[in-house]
Amino acid sequence: MTTQTHESTASEISNYLCIGCPMGCRLEVEENEAKEIVEVRGFSCRRGEQYAKQEHTEPQRMVTTTVAINNGLWARLPVRTTAAIPKDKTIELCQKLRSLRLQAPIDRGDIVLPNVFDTGVDVVASRSMKTADETTSSRNG
Amino acid sequence: MITAETQHLKPEYDVVVVGGGPAGMAAALGAKEMGADRVLIVDREKEAGGILLQCIHPGFGLQHFKEELTGPEYAQRFLEKVLETEVDLATDTYVLDIDKDKRVKLMSSDRGVEIVSAKAVVLAMGARERTRGAIRTPGSRPSGVLTAGLAQKFVNMLGYLPGKRAVILGSGDIGLIMARRLTLEGLEVAGVFEIMPHANGLNRNIVQCLHDYNIPLHLSTTVVEIHGSDRLEKVTVAPVDETFTPDMSRSWDIPCDTLLLSIGLIPENELSRQLNLRIDPVTRGPIVRSTMESSMDGVFVCGNVVHIHDLVDFVSQEALLAGRNAGLYATQQQPPEDNIRLVPGENVAYCVPHTISSDREHTVYMRVRKPLEASVLNLGEVYEKKLRYVFPAEMVNLKVRPRFLHEFHGDTLKVDIVPTAS
Amino acid sequence: MKIVLYDVTIIGGGAIGCTIARELSRYQINVALLEKEIEVGFGTSKANSGIIHGGHHGSPDSLKGKLEWEGNQLWDPLADELGFGFRRIGELTVALAEDQLPTLNALKEQGEKKGVPGLELWDRDRLQQEEPSLSENAIAALFAPTTGVVNPYEACFNLIENAVLNGLNLFVSSPVQSITEGPDNTWILQTPKKEYRTRFVINAAGVFADRIAELAGVRTFSIHARKGEEYLLDKRLCGLVKRVIFPCPTPVSKGILVIPTFDGTLMVGPTAEMVEDKYNLATSSAGGQQVFDFVRNVVPGISARDCIAEFAGLRAVADGEDFIIGTTSKKGFINVAGIQSPGLTAAPAIATLVADIIRDEGLSMSLKDDFEPAVPKPIHFASLPTEKQIELARQNPSYGQIVCRCELITEGEILDAIDRGAKTLDGIKFRTRAGMGRCQGGFCTSRCMELLSRKMDVPIPEITKRGGESWVVKPRTELTAT
């Protein structure tokens, strides 16, 4: 983020790059002397506008990582938060998840860790995973 | 269920799709949609989904599903559809060969070697990563130098970490994503180095993968030497000039045990070469008609086999089109042939498809050679589109509508992307 | 505990050590081989160009020139018995200017004097007809049909496998740290793990042969390292040239070559640069530049863009440039040193020469009755006809599972390689080519590690690229301990 002050108006403009989608819009948030957001510019969609305000006041991120799983097709299960959490909690959440060990099989959407940091956000499995030794189901014939 | 192996294959298929990643799955669905009954997907991994399964980060599906999904979620949605539509799926199976009569020679440990025949074939093998040899980085050959994609598989699926302190060469999206992944897994990422004066990955990834974790991005800088006899011990990096010549007087050493290479993808075209398909030297993938049919009748291609995409959503879109046309081919109901050739002009590296027809709408994908601010895309003299900014890392797409071509009677259209005249 | 007294102990498991070991395994003597690396062939031999030289290059007045032609003729039976890749594809020494023509004539004359058959001078038309990818600047060439290509590492592996089958005692990861004279004309060799007693010592330690001689107190020479960088090209270029292409030689080197390797891929190199550090295997941008700049003049279709891998090896160069083979001032210590190019070509002749020397030195050597000259030919799935593939995959499902996509190597072949001695990723790569293709292991590394881990019963983090500290991954627990 970069910030510049307009001396004439005493307003402050902060620049952000939108992470909402791959377009990467360049956003501007203008603040008045009372630190209130006066205007948001540069977005191409409603999400972008919201992102700019959020990023300016309290940045948040979706978190994706993996958790150990026993007897699964793979050694790690990918997981995600159901919504964005405060950005500065990301590393702490990943550390917390390192102490978990799940058991296959598991379904996509199964809750792995509920209500992280009392945010109401859960960490859920982002895929289903069968057990490694489960025989493959026969289809057609 | 991500794996649902078909136990017995049919001797004949309408469409055989090679590759069960996002392209292959969408192609199979497209073929089914057009009335192809017997469709087979062949994949060499133990489950379908392709590289998406190791791309555990979000950012997929905004175009296709209108919501943000992780790679495994995106894959699973497609797979569920594939299984609902009764497409045969042969995982753990390798295509050894396809002959000119479209007989496909398959091999798997369960079923051994078998041959199935196809009316149409869709090639959707994806891409492979460029390696150290491709850029000839001087130095020794210790362990610890690996492609970003291999590191991603180690970390996200197999559960091993590539080392303790990493340097990343190349600012492609996989490199940026891996910088964050390694940081979240407790490694120290000393920096990302990019030989070009601009980053190769999407801006959003620079923000949320590097800025968020204070990982430095060094543009116009590259790794000039690799050190270490058994295991990587350090790399020497140096800034480069406009001709990419390193300035050794300003070089410095970075101790690290891991060097990830994120230096680009190359379309996987072993089978395309076996079939003697015509290859575009720029994309390094087959030359395609607007139906995604290659230079060989009944052989369709889609996804990263054709050109490297930056969004899986576009892969799905392109593959759906290829699959539909393969389905039409197999059921003998093809659309009119193309009558206009697209020629990449100023600041356009390539256009896909290579030809279009004037009777229906087409989406043309292209990549620019250098970044521009406000610019304009000229489709010959028949149409122009204003663009806010363009980057080589971001594919430009253009909908070419039949009405653009009402007054056009030529057979070639040059495509330029140039700065807006100020 | 009974102390074993070996009749002969070979120090060094490169191409020379392996060939000697195999030759000596014909006899009723007790032989050991000590190799400092985790597998044989992992030093200079691994980076060898893989050319069996035609026989005409070296002057008959030098030992290396003499053994070059003798050795050349011994490769056919060796390859037949041991099943490694060897093919006489011929070579062309190309003149790019009129003033090089006398060199070609002199080479031809030298070869004919040595008895090398089939040497022919080709003019530009013949060249363009036989090798259309050669530059138009190539005005003439000397053709030698006797030149062949071989997989040097495969040769080492199969030679040693056969030697072990016939009773060789192979000790890897065993660097010799000291050499002392024991009682009754014996030698005592100390490695970090063990002490070995032996009557004869064969010093085949490559670039370190001077150090080994010094440990024994018989150092009369120095070995210098001359580095050669090689660049391997994409399969796309297979068949661009059919023969090994040499430039006109200079006094120092045979120059930069275009080599159609046994596997069909093209390799270009080597450079020739003296280096101080005998562990320096770094490639350089100057080296790459030199190779590709030179090659462009000879075969214009080759560019640096097609490079998929590069590596370097160190030639062991003795003062005076010739081989040093023979006895020393101390009874039982025999040098086989300074074996630079054409060392691989000469190796089988060197091996018989060494056997003769030991015999002359008084070791009683009678042939074994039960010597087994062959090892089973490894299965190479991709090159089998379809019916054979179908049958094999039915018999053993592991041959139905592709592990390396670029080179079409099956799980069965990798398991075979591990059974036959591969302990590392490089060991698998050099035996099967898995990981040697254009993706350079991007897809198959993890699978090869799983197979090594399963067969050797060690955790994956203990799997290495080539032994020592060349680990590939760390277990997660190490970082979660905090």
List the helices and strands and how they pair.
The complex is a heterotrimer of chains A (141), B (422) and C (482).
Chain A: E1 2-6, E2 11-17, E3 26-31, E4 37-41, H1 46-57, E5 60-61, E6 64-70, E7 76-81, E8 85-86, H2 90-98, E9 101-103, E10 111-116, E11 121-125
Parallel strand pairs in A: 6-9
Antiparallel strand pairs in A: 1-2, 2-3, 3-4, 5-8, 6-7, 7-11, 10-11
Chain B: E1 12-18, H1 22-33, E2 39-42, E3 58-60, E4 69-70, H2 71-84, E5 88-90, E6 93-98, E7 103-108, E8 112-123, E9 127-129, H3 132-135, E10 145-147, H4 148-158, E11 160-161, E12 165-169, H5 173-184, E13 188-193, H6 203-210, E14 217-218, E15 221-227, E16 234-239, E17 252-255, E18 258-261, E19 265-267, H7 270-274, E20 299-301, H8 312-330, E21 340-344, E22 348-352, E23 355-356, E24 362-368, E25 375-379, E26 383-387, E27 396-400, E28 412-419
Parallel strand pairs in B: 1-2, 1-8, 2-5, 8-20, 10-18, 12-13, 12-18, 13-14, 21-28
Antiparallel strand pairs in B: 3-4, 6-7, 7-8, 9-19, 15-16, 16-17, 21-23, 22-24, 24-27, 25-26, 25-28
Chain C: E1 5-11, H1 15-24, E2 31-34, E3 51-52, H2 63-82, E4 86-87, E5 91-95, H3 101-114, E6 120-123, H4 124-130, E7 140-144, E8 148-150, H5 152-165, E9 169-171, E10 178-182, E11 186-190, E12 195-203, H6 209-215, E13 223-233, E14 244-247, E15 257-260, E16 266-269, E17 273-275, H7 285-298, E18 307-318, E19 324-327, E20 333-337, H8 343-360, H9 386-395, E21 402-404, E22 409-410, H10 411-419, H11 425-432, H12 445-456, E23 474-475, H13 477-480
Parallel strand pairs in C: 1-2, 1-12, 2-9, 5-14, 12-20
Antiparallel strand pairs in C: 3-8, 4-8, 5-7, 6-7, 10-11, 11-12, 13-16, 13-17, 13-18, 15-16, 19-20, 21-22
Helix pairs in contact in C: 1-5, 1-8, 2-8, 10-11, 10-12
